């Protein structure tokens, strides 16, 4: 028996509201597969995405997960995607180095 069927059976037997398993019913999580794709360039330096399905700004997190966790006994938190700092991000142009370290460039 599939996991989804077991979840429905568990809901019926335990008389638990289905939102405790599936989250926000206004989002399509009951589809066979929910896929969201973003271009990394469009995310900027940091993006915080909802994993509890209760955010009013879905797919972005609005901080709803603590309340969701309290109501459901879950421990889910947001997915945080941030840009990795590269050596070029820390690059200091030569003219700035000359001003910062004046005695080193004679």
Q: CATH superfamily of one domain, called what?
A: CDGSH iron-sulfur domain, mitoNEET-type
Low-confidence stretches: 15-20
Name of the CATH architecture of one domain: 3-Layer(aba) Sandwich
**Mind summarizing the main beta sheet?**
2 strands, antiparallel
Structure description:
It is a single-pass membrane protein. It is found in: Mitochondrion outer membrane. Residues 33-71 form the Iron-binding zinc finger CDGSH type domain. By secondary structure, the chain is α+β, with helices and mostly antiparallel strands. It is built from 4 helices and 2 strands. It has a domain at 36-83: CDGSH iron-sulfur domain, mitoNEET-type (Ribosomal Protein L9, domain 1, 3-Layer(aba) Sandwich). The protein has helices at residues 3-14, 19-22, 65-72, 94-100, and strands at 46-49, 79-82.
Layout: helices, strands, pairs:
Blueprint: H1 3-14, H2 19-22, E1 46-49, H3 65-72, E2 79-82, H4 94-100
Antiparallel strand pairs: 1-2
Organism: Nyctereutes procyonoides (Raccoon dog)
Membrane topology: Single-pass membrane protein
Subcellular location: Mitochondrion outer membrane
Short description:
By secondary structure, this protein is of the alpha+beta class.
List keywords for this structure.
MitoNEET_CISD; metal ion binding; 106 residues; membrane; alpha+beta; 2Fe-2S; 2 strands; Ribosomal Protein L9, domain 1; mitochondrion outer membrane; two-stranded antiparallel sheet
């Amino acid at each position: 028996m599939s996991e989804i069927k077991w979840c429905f059976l568990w809901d019926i037997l335990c008389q638990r509201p289905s939102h405790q398993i599936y989250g926000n019913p206004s989002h399509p999580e009951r589809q066979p597969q929910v896929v969201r794709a973003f271009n990394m360039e469009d995310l900027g330096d940091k993006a915080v995405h909802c994993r509890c399905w209760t955010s009013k700004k879905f797919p972005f997190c609005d901080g709803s997960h603590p309340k969701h966790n309290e109501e459901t006994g879950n421990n889910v938190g947001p997915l945080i995607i941030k840009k990795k700092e590269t050596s070029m991000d820390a690059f200091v142009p030569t003219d700035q180095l000359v001003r910062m370290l004046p005695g080193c460039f004679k």
